[in-house]
Amino acid sequence: MRFITTILYRMTNDHTHHYHLILLLLIFLLPTKTIAKSDTNYWYDCSIDEHIPNPKTKFLNVTSNPTTVTRHSGQIIYKTIQYDGIPGVDLNLETISADFHQYYKVFGKRWTTFLHVHKVPQCDAKGNENLCPLKVGESVEIKSVHPPLGWYTPYGMYRSRQVWRDGSTEEPLGCVDMEFEYRAEDVVVGDEEESEVEITE
């Protein structure tokens, strides 16, 4: 136990790697649960799963570059979002937050939670500059830029479930569930290789 505590102290001094250190430790410590839902398109609208019967925020499309993350690549995720509020009834969204539920697929079989955070502001996030205010009936395209993962991050399958909320009332607006694979090397698809993404600040 003292050994683990010492490693934690030394590595978490670097806040950039704190997230990945938590992942490395918790995949062995947290209980697992099986997720029955799967999707071959790597993302789906999970509003029904989160008991949001009439989602006002709809995810029209989600793409990533590259689709498979490797040791030296980052990843950029693009989302097209539409606010399906009722004109004259629903107000424009001045602020938006999101709950993030992150999973790792242990031994390629069981999804395990390694991070769950709530009410993360989205309007001022990098790549979301055109998100707020979001007007009724309006569609916007946003992107999330992720740098290369830490060297100690386990290879395998990852999922990110995001429940978006009205930042003022905390009303749930919609949900998106995304899946990606992390490998050591690029994946060859036909005669082409997925290219690595250069992440610049």
Automatic annotation (TrEMBL):
Which UniProt keywords are listed?
Signal
Signal sequence range: 1-36
Superkingdom of this protein's organism: Eukaryota
- What is the name attached to this protein's record? MD-2-related lipid-recognition domain-containing protein
Annotated organism of origin:
Fragilariopsis cylindrus CCMP1102
